[in-house]
Amino acid sequence: MMFLSIRQLMARKKQSLLILLGIVIGSSAYVAISGMMLGFQTYMLDQLVNNEAHIRISAREEILTIAEMASYPEASHVFWQIPPSGRKDSTRIEYPLGWFKKLDSDKDVAAYSPQVVAQVIFNKNKITRVGRIIGSQYERQIKVTNIENYMKAGTFKAMGNSGNRIIMGTKLMELLGTRLQETILVSTGHGIPQPFKIVGAFETGIKTIDEGTSFISLADAQKLRGTPSEITDIAVKLFDSNWAEEKSTLWKNNARDKVLSWQESSAAILSVFKTQDIVRNSMTISIILVAGFGIYNILSILVNQKRRDIAILRSMGFSPKDIVQLFFNQGMLLGLIGGAIGLILGFIICTIMSHIEVVPGRMSGPGNYMIISFNIFIYIKAFSIAIFTAIISSIIPAMAGGKLEPMQIIRSGDQ
Amino acid sequence: MIEIKNIIKSFPNTPTPVLKGITLKIEDGDFVSLVGKSGSGKSTLLYIISTLDTPSEGEIFYDSKNLKDFRPEEIYQLRNRNIGFVFQFHYLLTELTAIENILLPARKANEVEKRRDFAMNLLNTVGLEGKAHRYPGELSGGEQQRLAIARALVMEPKYIFADEPTGNLDSANGKIIMDLFKKFNQEKGTTIIYVTHDVDFAEIAKRKINLIDGKLV
To answer: Which residues have a Cβ under 8 Å from the Cβ of A381 and sit 6 or more positions away?
Structure first.
């Protein structure tokens, strides 16, 4: 029946082209919008997942309660005028060795990096900025994050394992009015500020990190805080970042410390992604639905127009199934051709967009071009939507055609 | 051979049956005209014999096999291989050329290439030589009906059923059609059963069946 289906499609060139256009626009729009949005999401996820840690283990934060005071010696003789309140921060991970042992033996853990994270004051001449330092062992840190990829000057390795060397965000350096190889003062607020020499600069494109974070060696951070051999955080990288949530739930059950997966710490952004996905899918489905209604309408009219053809085909021995196929093929052909052209057009649009230059660091990949996703699943999904729409919108009129009996048509006097 | 026994056909909302117990035999190679006034039931009888319609009561036998015992696929095959239809209106597919229209039944049987030469011969036989690649819209009414006859004959069927094949044609073209039927009946032994209002054309048949108010006379 394919021969006849093609001939009938070709006989109505304008109608067929219009329907085809609807499917092409729908599927290419899906590919282009998805490519752009998923490109953006990939970029953001890369920043979220690989700039931080898949799982962060940190000192637990607890709120003080009166009940806790009851366990103090002589508590029964103590009467509070104003009950104690506030947060009981443990400034360190209580038993880091236990964690190291656990992480070393876990087959899902790719790497981990013990850290000292502290709020500090940076000072250069009369300029003062508040920020955060991350003290780590560079050889472990580069296995956990991809900070090395964002180095603009110097190397991450230059930080060393001691010697008061610091790697700063480029924006922070600008704000402090300092340059590479210059020395700045860093203080935790307690004790004497210590001088650090700037040996490297990084730029992730995320303003909050570039303006407020610096890296120093673990030993220097411990010295700066005056807490030798203490660590505040452990950054963990898994072989698959998708396991982070499950793993962190498992670890939380047996830990006094706080365990947070990247999904939990980025829940707000992930929910934005979900909203984006809903918008993207509903927009495309709306376009394709219009094309689907087009197929349905055209085929319904066609079945009605071709009643006498159905009668003669049935009298020649064509079965109801053949008649269904005659019209169904036409819908499918429109879906297949429209979907395929849509994918090609979508790919071309994506390629053009991936050559658009954007502000460095903002959604930009190598060479500061817009990041566009060329994920094969976008194309598979777009094609599937086109085919699915074609199937649904053509099967109903096709079945109606198949149900027509030749005598019904002959008696109704169709000429 | 086709044998029909006590065929009754009623329609909903019609007080009396259109066909009232018709019994007849049509031998292989027969040339039969069905005549009668409008509403006498001749077209209904033709469509029931030709499997396109079903009787309310009674039985039809094709070579002694009851049509009721045929599976739907067997009916479709019977229509494709053994039956050719010619209607009052040509019912040609406008998207297809003359030769493609003729070869439509062969397409169903997957015999397009096998029957292409025969189809070309048929085209010449019905006087449409050189018009194989014309579309129906480019042919006259008489040519379209001759094309429909060629299409009905392409599978070399045992039976041809025609419902007022000359009804829409002038007498000259009508005569050409009837001559073609006569020729195929004589040369190929094709059984031809046709409905006609035209007294002269009815007389061409070897056998004339007259219907009055749903009964054989």
So the answer is: A30, A34
Helices (H), A62-166: 66-69, 96-105, 138-144
Measuring CA to CA, how many Å separate A259 from each of A17, A93, A107, A281, B190? 58, 11, 18, 34, 90
pTM score of the predicted model: 0.68
- Chain B residues close to A7, C-beta within 8 Å: 95-96, 100
Q: Which of A24, A35, A124, A89 is nearest to A372 (CA)?
A: A35
Q: Do A311 and B53 touch (CB under 8 A)?
A: no
- What's the rounded Cα separation, in Å, for the pair A282 and A277? 8
What is this model's ipTM?
0.88
Tokens 């690989």 locate to: A50
Quote the minimal CA–CA distance from A14 to chain B in Å. Answer: 15
- Residue B52, token pair as written in the block: 């396109």
Q: CA-to-CA distance for A308 and B92, rounded, in angstroms?
A: 9
Place of tokens 């964690």: A99
pLDDT in tens, chain B (217 residues): 899 998 898 888 777 888 888 899 998 999 999 998 888 888 889 999 989 888 999 999 998 889 888 899 999 999 999 999 888 776 789 889 999 999 999 999 999 999 999 899 888 888 888 888 999 999 988 889 889 888 988 888 999 999 888 877 778 778 888 888 888 898 888 899 999 888 888 888 888 999 888 888 7
Indicate the residue type of B20: K
Mutation target to probe the B interface, by most B beta carbons within 10 A, among A302, A316, A404, A414 is: A316
